[in-house]
From TrEMBL:
Single GO term (MF): acyltransferase activity, transferring groups other than amino-acyl groups
Lineage, broadest ranks: unclassified sequences, metagenomes, ecological metagenomes
Protein's name according to its UniProt entry: N-acetyltransferase domain-containing protein
Record-linked SUPFAM superfamilies: Acyl-CoA N-acyltransferases (Nat) (SSF55729)
Sequence ranges assigned to domain N-acetyltransferase in this UniProt record: 4-154
Species this protein is from: marine metagenome
InterPro entries, per the entry: Acyl_CoA_acyltransferase, Bact_Acetyltransf, GNAT_dom
UniProt KW keywords: Acyltransferase, Transferase
Length: 154
């Protein structure tokens, strides 16, 4: 397995992360997102680390993958659950361990923080490749289903 440099995203990465998010939406959900809206969303998270963070994987100085995490307070557990979101790996780097390293990095950070009680993510129910990868990394299907009421449809 190749070794990638994993680091926190910076404002210099906004354009690439935005591109990755646009590709992610097209590939996984068949939707086209508004570039300006996504750019603002990416920039906000990078500027406001209390909301979460983007982590990027680099190979030779080029971004080849990303994941975002956000925080959910759990009153039942008296701690934060970190949600893994916006997972994307460039097509030419898939199946090379990029996500495995991103996940391992985030899991180590979460485990070292006594205020974090676990990790969660959602996955498209028909995305068998992603589900298999997540299960191999120790994630399992939860008892919950996600329900939503979004106020501005994408």
């Amino acid at each position: 397995m190749l070794k990638f440099v994993i680091r926190a995203a910076t404002r210099d990465d906004v354009t690439t992360i935005t591109d990755f998010n646009l590709r992610l939406a097209a590939e996984t959900e068949g939707i086209s997102l508004d570039r300006e809206l996504v750019t603002r969303g990416v920039t906000t998270l990078i500027d406001e680390r209390s909301r979460g963070n983007y982590w990027v994987a680099c190979s030779g100085g080029t971004l080849v993958g990303q994941l975002m995490h956000t925080r959910e307070w759990s009153d039942w557990r008296n701690g934060d659950i970190w949600w893994i979101q916006s997972v994307y790996v460039r097509e030419d780097h898939r199946r090379r361990g990029v996500f495995t390293q991103l996940h391992s990095h985030l899991k180590a950070l979460a485990a070292s923080d006594p205020g974090v009680v676990g990790l969660r993510l959602y996955v498209e129910s028909d995305n068998l490749a992603a589900r298999t990868t997540y299960e191999r990394l120790g994630l399992h299907t939860a008892r919950y289903q996600i329900m939503e009421d979004l106020f501005n449809s994408v």
